[in-house]
Structure formats: structure tokens, C-alpha cells
Amino acid sequence: PDGTLAVIDRKKELMKLQCGEYVSFGKVETALAVSQYVETVVVCGDPMRNSVVAIIVPKGDAITKLAQRIPFANGDLVSGQHISMEAMCSDEEIRSVILKDIQKVGLEQKLARMEIPRAIHLDPNGPWLPACGLVTDSLKVKR
Fold first, then answer.
1. Residue 10 — φ and ψ, nearest 5°?
2. What is the DSSP string of 70-133?
3. How far apart are CA 85 and CA 114, in angstroms?
4. Which residues have CB under 8 Å from 129's CB, separation 6+?
5. Distance, CA of 92 to CA of 41 (rounded, Å)
6. pLDDT per residue over 41-91, tens digit each?
7. What does the pLDDT look like over 115-139, one tens digit per residue?
8. Residue 78 contacts by C-beta under 8 Å, 6 or more apart in sequence?
9. Alpha-carbon span 22 to 12, nearest angstrom
10. pTM, two decimal places
11. Nearest to residue 65, comparing CAs of 87, 86, 80?
């Protein structure tokens, strides 16, 4: 409005969604990293959609405690037995609880509606290291 130019973020870090709004992936990732369940988060978007999605590497201890607290989608409770990270990450109930927490954190961090992920994918193969090809040597996400 006052005729000045403001640099918001790197060009690679911005995506224009279908609704015409630009989303800064770095801003959203920083806000969502506050969640108790998030070890690493990457936000992705599709220019033909109105919202973003998040790929999350969950914290092992937090997701294990969650798995012990809530019944799995098949109704079983995990009580003291070892369950694999893959099984926890693929469970619908656990994913639903973490998605609700992510959305709550997004609102608390004052993200706009289209910046809050409507879907998540839990990646059991964390933490991400440069050898896996998903991050650089300085641990920045390759886009």
C-alpha cells in the first residue's frame, strides 16, 4: 500500500494455491515444528488445491505414548508390547490425533486457514539425514 517492496521468502519456498493465496512453506514448517509430535516437518502444496499437506517424521517417544493411550483403528490397545514405528505411523487413529494437534498448533501460531494442513503423512523413516537424499548437508529440505 505504501509503494515499498518487501521480501517475504525465497521463491522456492512460496507456492500459489488455487485460491490465489501464496503460502510460505518455511513459515508453516516453523510454526508446526512446535507440536509435541513433530521431529521433522515438510509442507507441500499443489497449485490446483486450496490447502497444503504435511509430511511429518514423528517423535518416537511421543508417538509411542500416544499409541499406548488410544486404541488402534482395529480396536486393540497397545499395553507394554513393542509396536513398530511403521505400524504406528500407518494407523488411522494415530494419524487423526496428530492431524488434529497439528491443526490446533497452526491456529495457535496464527496461521491462515489455507496454511494449515488438511492432511498429513507420517514417515516412519526418520530422522532425515543427507545420505537419504531428502536434506542437504546443512539439513535443509531439498525441494
1. -65, 150
2. S--TTS----SS---HHHHHH-HHHHHHHHHHHHHHHHHTT--GGGS-SEEEE-SSPSP-GGGT
3. 30
4. 135
5. 19
6. 999 888 888 889 999 999 989 998 998 888 765 555 555 566 788 989 999
7. 999 999 999 987 877 777 777 787 7
8. 67, 68, 72
9. 12
10. 0.81
11. 80
Q: CA separation (Å) from 42 to 3, 77, 86, 111?
A: 33, 30, 19, 16
**Residue recorded with cell 499406548:** 68
The most distant pair of C-alpha atoms in the chain lies apart, rounded to whole Å, by 62
If we measure between CA atoms, which residue out of 27, 34, 87 comes closest to residue 60? 87
Cell readout for 95 is 494419524
In the DSSP assignment, the letter for residue 133 is T
User: Phi and psi at residue 124, in whole multiples of 5°?
Assistant: -80, -5
Instruction: Determine the angle formed by the axes of helices 92-108 and 60-69, rounding to 10 degrees.
Output: 120
DSSP letter, residue 17? -
- Residue type for position 134: L
**Three cell numbers written together for 64:** 509411542
